[in-house]
Sequence to fold (318 residues):
Amino acid sequence: MNEENETFVTEFVLVGHLSLLNYPKLFFTLLLMFYLISQVGNALIISLVKLDSRLHTPMYFFLCNLSLVEIFYTSVTFPTILSVSLARVKWLSVGSCLLQICFFHFLGAVECLLLTVMAYDRYVAICRPLHYRTMMSGTVCMSLAVTCWLSGFFNFLALILLTSRLRFCGAKTIANFFCDIPPLFKLACGDISINKVMLTVGDILVGILPCLLIVISYAWIISTILKIHSSQGRKKVFSTCASHLTVVCIFFSTSLLIYMKPSSSYFSDWEELLSLVYTVLTPMLNPLIYSLRNNEVKAALKKVFSSKISSECIRRLT
Fold:
C-alpha cells in the first residue's frame, strides 16, 4: 500500500448508536446538566477545603487535586460528547482526535494514581495512626501529588509517541461519543503490535498496579477495623474511608471493563454506555459522594453557607 493511501484519512466521524439518541434534545439536556453539576460540585469541593481550616489535612489536599483533575477531565471530552448527542455525528480531524486521546489518558492516569495515594493515606491514618503526622507530612503530600501529575505527564508523552505512528486508511467512522484508543485501533492500518504492547504496559503501570495497591491497602484497613471490639468504633473508622472506596469502585470497575477486555472488531452499545459512565457520571458523582457521605464536608458546607447568610443579614440590617 502506498503512502498516499496510508495517509488518506484526515478526519474521523464520531457516531453514537445508543437508543437514547432517539431523544436528542432530552439526552443533550441530561448530559449538559451532568456536566454543570460535575463542574460546580468539584469547584465547590476545592473552595470548601480552601475556606475551612478543619479540612486542611492530607486527605482533603488530595481530594482537591482529584477535583481539579475531574474539572479538566470532563472538559476534554464533553464538547465532543454534547455535539454527538445533539447531532448524532461529529466530524473531527485526526490530529484533534489524537490530542483528545492524549489529554484524556493523561488526566485519567493522574486520577488513578491520586486514588491510590488517597488509599495509602487512609491506610496510614487507620493502621499507623501514631506515625500519621510524620508519614503524611506536608512535604510528603506535596511530593506524592507532584509524582502523580508527573507520571500522568510521562504517560501523555508516551501516548503522543505511540499515536503519532498510527496511519489510517479506508474506514473513518468511530462508534463512540468521543475519541478513545480501543475504537481508534480498529481503524488503524499497518502493524500496530508495538502500540498494543506499549498500551498494555501503560495499562499495567497506571491501571492494574494502582488497583492492586488499593486492594492491598484496603485489605490492611479492613483487617485493622475488624480488630476493633466496638461495633460503633468499627463503623466510625470505616466511615472515614467509605467515600473514597465508593469512588474507587465506580471508577476502576468501569474503566477496567473498557480497557482490559479482549479486543473485538466492533465497539458495542454497552461499551459506549460504559465509556459515558466513566467520563460523564463518575466525575459528577465524586463531589456528591464526598459531600453526602462525609460528615466533615457536610459540616464545612453548613459553616460556609450559614456564615454567608449571616453576613447578608447583617449587611441588610446596616
Notes: The chain has one domain: 10-317. The domain at 10-317 is CATH 1.20.1070.10 (Rhopdopsin 7-helix transmembrane proteins). The beta strands are 11-15, 89-93, 167-168, 173-174, 188-189.
